[in-house]
Write a structure and sequence with these properties.
Chain lengths: 132, 132
DNA sequence: GTGAAAGATGGATTCATTCTAAATACAAAC
DNA sequence: GTTTGTATTTAGAATGAATCCATCTTTCAC
């Protein structure tokens, strides 16, 4: 995949699951899908692999609200929306208005290097079924 | 404080701690400050109170990255910056460019009702000491 | 006052994650 | 090709945050 990436068989199988899943799986989801695919890794190995891949920059860790961290193999800059009803997570590619990060730097004095956006609301399905 | 707010002595003491703390305390911080102030509440009571106050809309719960939730008594619309080195959290009052939430709605089909922004970077102090 | 409902308490429990110590694999040095 | 060392995996124990539970207390309506 990338140079300097030490992909053991376990790490590769974890990477494969994450990159083939469109729904931002949690560590537990990854475990389960590995098991379904006939692999059996220790819990610690899944966590270690997810961290390794995150540090290596080939996947991203998403933390949105409470609950388990989720993982995403899409690397393009993007943000996320979470459904407050069913928990579904989707990508947002609409880019943040330029200048906002700089405005934050000016206001706070922080050296901002990254801005995470998490939108919350109802996904199309839940919005439809809640419209009574 | 507000109408329809059932402030028991315990809830009031939790509210007082949160509103007098500028550093976005965690539940454990609140516990400790209560103890220092001479109150002793059960852990569950602190959590219940924080949730009650959050639901009542008089404080906000902040979840940024891993670790414990933090609480904030400032109610004006605002966002947060976290220092990736020391964990300090500050407020951002610079408002999000209008139209961004709507752009998200258009792109994703979600009925977006709220957008959380968490900026990450180095706080002024850490930035200074890391400049070698 | 009596009883129902809401709230508080301490301890046990759950869930996500990390740690630990032992077992394996793998690569470089001889 | 055996030895030595370093990185990785493993199972299970341990941790930290938060919630649950069963019991006791308070509050309020009547």
């Amino acid at each position: 995949m990338y140079r300097n990436l030490h992909l053991t068989p376990q790490r590769k199988s974890v990477y494969d699951i994450v990159s083939q899943s469109a729904d931002h799986p949690t560590a537990a989801d990854v475990m389960e899908r590995l098991r379904q695919a006939g692999h059996k890794l220790a819990y610690a190995t899944v966590y270690n692999s997810l961290r390794y891949l995150t540090d290596a920059g080939v996947i991203q860790e998403l933390r949105m609200g409470s609950g388990a961290a989720r993982y995403d193999a899409r690397l393009e800059a993007h943000q996320h929306v979470v459904c407050t009803q069913c928990g579904r997570v989707d990508e947002i590619f609409e880019i943040m208005p330029a200048g906002y990060a700089e405005a934050i730097t000016n206001e706070t004095g922080y050296r901002v290097d990254h801005v995470d956006v998490v939108a919350k609301g109802l996904c199309p399905d839940c919005a439809k079924s809640s419209r009574h």
